[in-house]
Amino acid sequence: MKLLIVLMVSRLIKLFANITKLLSYGFHFLFPRKRFTLPEQAAPLLKSRKTSAVPRILWQTNFTNKATLPVYLNYLFNRLMSPSFEYRFMITDARAAFIQENFSQEIFEAYSRLQVGAAQADFWRVLVLQKCGGVYLDIDAHVVWPLSRIVKPEMEELFITTKRGEISNYFIASKPDNPHLARSSRRSMPMSKATK
Question: Please, what sign has the CA dihedral across residues 97, 69, 17, 25?
Fold first, then answer.
């Protein structure tokens, strides 16, 4: 019965999200240049007394902090669904600075060689979770159930699989220093001159 309720609520949330996305097209037709600013950091809306293996930080990234209405609505909805989580957002330059400050020169150079923003974001999400831990969620994605109920306090990691059984990277939850993410970051590093 509980699973049925979760399924029904998540379907209603998806339906509501799709309706608001359609309405957003009308908004941007009337106001084509209007953008909303995503904060670099925002404190939790509610303090949690529970400890959690996965730090209560929700990470997102994009090339800019200026968002269209659908993306901004995703941000607001995700904040409501994760009230005990701190929010952290990084643009392209901030991602590079974070990697340079927290990782080896070899890793920073590997990251810098990536020419496509999405590839840089893929590499960064693994590194930021490996260093700080937390939950990574794509900028255009939204959760369909309270995040603290998805990522339970005792969990050390949570990966989502696609319908084909492949691990997706649009949502990753991890404790810091996760050996699975460490292996993943080594595999995703572009080959350096020394390893060619």
Answer: negative
